Amino acid sequence: MSSITLLFLALSSLSPVLSKSPTCPSTPPLTPPTCAYPPEPYTIQPSNGKGLGVFARHTLPAGTIILREAPIFTIRLPNTTTTPKPTYPMPQITQLVREQYALLPEPSQHEVLNLHFHAFPGEFDQGPGWDDILGYIFRTNAYNTGAAIGLFPKIARINHSCRPNAAYYWSEKLGQRIIYASREIAEGEEISDSYISLLAGREERRKKLERYGFTCTCAACSQTALGLAESDARRRDIGRAFTAFAGQLDLEVALPDTRVARRKARSNARASLELAELVEMEGLADYYAQAYKIVAVSHARVGDWETASVWANKGFERRVMEDRESGWTAEMWEMTSGFIERWKEELKVGGAGGV
């Protein structure tokens, strides 16, 4: 038998195997691992009467980080006046913004141009630099980033509320603006933060919001006439109380040494609890830590170290939620630790404390 015949027979014996469909090897080749990252805790979708908004994809407990975003670009505003309150003419802002915008890739440029903006009647007609929508987009949506002003396209989608469920801070270390849940947010609930100070009545708040081009209709602004009057009064009382307590928040607590001073200290302690109650009643989570610190210091000044420790710790927990690396958080940790030590000393000697 020739060698050619032997080769043919060998190939013929293999033909049934070769005709079968290929099968995967029992041990797959090495491939890069794929990770199924959890989806963002929010979605961007239409919000009734507000354009687009940001909504919770699932329930978000208080303190949950919702969004971290670095600015798509920043500018430093020029001080063009020598008055105590500087002004920033639109033409100069627009020029700075357009320079940064030109450096962006095309998808990022589209993202910027899709943002909402507001211009007051007649502004577009004031001449060069006033007729460019980029300046208005920036003015409507920009946030402070330490020494500069930055634009955050995703965060800009978060709508305002006078009783917000989220708050934010700028992390210098990360170079990001961080949005977190200031209270529990239900699945499907719109996420909101505040564009302005909230310690004013509705009409004053609406006046401040005119620069954004909308009239606020949040839950706080849409109450009955009686409910609104009560809410406005509480907010004004809160603002006055914060002002009154502003000079009494030193970490070094000295107990009052006269009868009049002790009476005043006891009155302040009672007033501080009323303040915290008002802040919580209004749901002004941005102000919780400040109110809790006032309660803690006010009770330390009357030697009630137990109450002072409890409220200082509440303030510390809020500061951790806001920004665990901030100086305010470190301050509240120092205060809480010091008050607890005084409370321990009081328990050792069996004293009730107080003045």
Structure, briefly:
The protein is an alpha+beta fold and 355 residues long. The chain is built from 10 helices and 10 strands.
Features:
disordered N terminus; 355 residues; 2 domains; elongated; 4-stranded mixed β-sheet; 10 helices
Describe this structure in words.
There is one protein chain. 31% of the residues are buried. This protein folds into 2 domains: 42-212, Beta-clip-like (Beta Complex), CATH 2.170.270.10; 225-352, no CATH class. It has a 4-stranded mixed β-sheet, with no helix packed on it. Strands 3-9-8 form a 3-stranded antiparallel β-sheet, with helices on one face. With 355 residues, the chain is an alpha+beta fold. The chain has helices spanning 3-19, 90-102, 106-113, 133-141, 202-209, 225-245, 259-282, 288-300, 305-323, 327-349, and strands at residues 42-47, 51-56, 65-69, 73-75, 143-145, 148-151, 159-160, 166-171, 176-181, 190-193. α2 (90-102) packs across α4 and α7 runs antiparallel to α8 (288-300). It starts with a helix and ends in a 6-residue tail after the last helix. It has 10 helices and 10 strands. InterPro entries: SET_dom, SET_dom_sf, SET_domain_protein. Residues 37-196 form the SET domain. It comes from Byssothecium circinans. Keywords: Signal. This is SET domain-containing protein.
Topology summary:
Blueprint: H1 3-19, E1 42-47, E2 51-56, E3 65-69, E4 73-75, H2 90-102, H3 106-113, H4 133-141, E5 143-145, E6 148-151, E7 159-160, E8 166-171, E9 176-181, E10 190-193, H5 202-209, H6 225-245, H7 259-282, H8 288-300, H9 305-323, H10 327-349
Parallel strand pairs: 7-10
Antiparallel strand pairs: 1-2, 2-10, 3-9, 4-6, 5-6, 8-9
Organism: Byssothecium circinans
Domain SET: 37-196
Signal peptide: 1-19
